[in-house]
Specification:
It contains 8 helices and 4 strands, in the order ααααααβαβββα. It has 179 residues and is of the alpha+beta class. The chain folds into 2 domains: 102 residues, N-terminal domain of the delta subunit of the F1F0-ATP synthase (Peroxidase, domain 1), CATH 1.10.520.20; 72 residues. A 4-stranded mixed sheet has the order 2-1-3-4. Helix 1 crosses helix 6 and helix 2 packs antiparallel against helix 6. The radius of gyration is 20 Å and the shape is elongated. The two termini are 33 Å apart. InterPro entries: ATP_synth_OSCP/delta_N_sf, ATPase_OSCP/dsu. Pfam families: OSCP (PF00213).
C-alpha cells in the first residue's frame, strides 16, 4: 500500500520533527502512535470514524474518548488534524513511518526474524550479535515461527533480506535445475 505510506509520511515527519530533540518526547509519541494505530485497526472503531452521520467534532470526541493514555495538547491537535483531513485511518502507517525515523535517529533497525523452529533467548542473542556486525546497526529483534521454512531462518532488516532457510535453498535448486 504505497499510497497510504505516501499519505502518512508528512504526518509522521511532522510529529518526528516536533519530538526529535527530546528522547522523552520521542518515546511518548512512539507509545501514543502505537496505541492510536491499534485503536484504528479495530473494525468497529474504523466504522464509527467513517460514519457519515458523525461530524468531525463527534469523531474527535469519540476517538479521544477511546484513548487510554493521557493526551497532551499537541496530541489532541494531531488527532483533530487527522480527522479534519479525513486521514485518521492512516494512523498505522504514520506509526510505522515514525518508528522508522526514530530508529534511524537512534542508529537502530527492526530485525524481523522468522525461524522454522522456536529459538531460545540465547540463540536469538547470538543471531542478533552476528547480524549487528553484518548490518552495522543495533537491531531490535522480532521473532516469529513459520514451519514452512523447513529449517534455517529468514531475516528482514529494512529492505534487505537474508534467507538461509531450507525452503529458499530448495527454491534456488529448483530454479537452477529448471534453467
Amino acid at each position: 500500500m504505497a499510497e497510504l505510506s505516501t499519505i502518512a509520511r508528512p504526518y509522521a515527519e511532522a510529529v518526528f520533527a516536533s519530538a526529535r530533540d527530546d528522547q522523552e518526547a520521542l518515546a511518548s509519541w512512539s507509545t501514543l502512535l502505537s496505541e492510536l494505530a491499534q485503536l484504528v485497526s479495530i473494525d468497529e472503531v474504523r466504522e464509527a470514524l467513517t460514519d457519515p452521520r458523525l461530524n468531525a467534532a463527534k469523531r474527535i470526541e469519540l476517538f479521544t474518548g477511546l484513548v487510554k493514555s493521557p493526551l497532551s495538547a499537541a496530541a489532541r491537535n494531531f488527532i483533530e488534524l487527522l480527522i479534519d483531513n479525513d486521514r485518521i485511518l492512516v494512523l498505522p502507517q504514520v506509526s510505522e513511518q515514525f518508528e522508522l525515523l526514530k530508529n534511524e535517529l537512534e542508529g537502530t533497525a527492526l530485525a524481523q526474524i522468522t525461524s522454522a523452529f522456536p529459538l531460545s533467548d540465547e540463540q536469538v542473542q547470538q543471531l542478533v550479535a552476528g547480524l549487528e556486525k553484518k548490518f552495522g546497526l543495533k537491531l531490535k529483534p522480532v521473532v516469529t515461527v513459520d514451519s514452512e521454512l523447513i529449517g534455517g531462518v529468514r531475516v528482514v532488516v529494512g529492505d534487505q533480506v537474508l534467507d538461509t532457510s531450507v525452503q529458499a535453498q530448495l527454491a534456488r535448486m529448483r530454479d537452477t535445475l529448471a534453467a
